Amino acid sequence: MAERQAGARAPPATVTSDDAPGYGKRMDLSVAFLGTGGSVPTARRATACLLVRVGGERLLFDCGEGSQRQMQRSTGLVPVDEIYLTHYHADHYLGVPGLLKTYDLQGRERPLQIVGPPGLGELFRALGRIVGRLSYEVELVELEQGDAVRHDGYEVRCFGVDHRVRAYGYALVEDERPGRFDPALAERLGVEPGPDFGRLQAGEPVDGSNGAVRPEQVMGESRRGRKLVVTGDTGPCEMVRLAAHEAELLVHDGSFADEETERAAETGHSTARQAAELARDAGVRLLAIVHVSSRYDVREVLAEAREEFAATEAPRDFDLVEIPLPERGEPRLVENGARAATQV
User: Fold this and answer.
1) Widest CA span of the chain, in angstroms?
2) Strand 57-63 to strand 82-84: parallel, antiparallel, or no bridges (unpaired)?
3) Total tally of structural domains belonging to the chain
4) What digits encode the pLDDT tens for the residues 310-335?
5) Which of 3, 13, 280, 322 is the 20 to 30 Å CA partner of 204?
């Protein structure tokens, strides 16, 4: 397995400049909840795992025990492009060896990136006997706090969270999109409909009836892209609040009920209410609490959170959140949607 330090500013198979080849490109964005339980899996809730669809790419955030089985029960065993690990507690990575071996048995050839905090290489040296030789390349990317992995049209940024070990959250942030094009105004300025309309929208000046017509003359203000934030295990902290500012969806640790606020602090976790308070203060559009301890009735924990922030959900395994463009509506939870959407 190849290793690379993203701290050297060379994330694999990405661009590191501010250039964005996918600038303005519309992409589907959804989150399939494959594991929503706490540290101990139950019959109804597996350990931590999220499958994010961004356009044609599939990103896995954490890969707890049984993640490949959860995929087989819902989306199918899709060939993910990258796996992001928030930290190295077993309930967040035990599913990786099985998933890698299954891909190998299926004859996968495409390389796979696995991304995480420092210590990723050490973890995989320990897992080497289990994983063995693979038919495809696995590249390990260790991030330093604040690093980002660049994609076409978006990036995944890491940030430090408050847990018992070094741990990261991740913010998937789309590039800004161009403003709306005004074709009637362009025609009044003498631009012929057709290829010149496309050039203006791509940022190029074109000829009009009275000289050059510049894109800013016929394009509205830029529109922000969407933001998805996944915290992994964490206590409530300022870094999460900053990273989640005006996010469409925040997936946050909600391990404990109010009655165990002190234990949450001792173990580096959050109560559902604390997660809701943070979501409210950050101005997010939808909060999804996960990692709820199996000792609770999730409905009661969810009720505590909704007292602080009404737009809170506690997804079950195989629920799906669809995230439309901001001007097209609010994120929405689709119960059992990961099973219904066969191409997640």
Assistant:
1) 72
2) parallel
3) 2
4) 999 999 999 999 999 988 899 999 99
5) 13
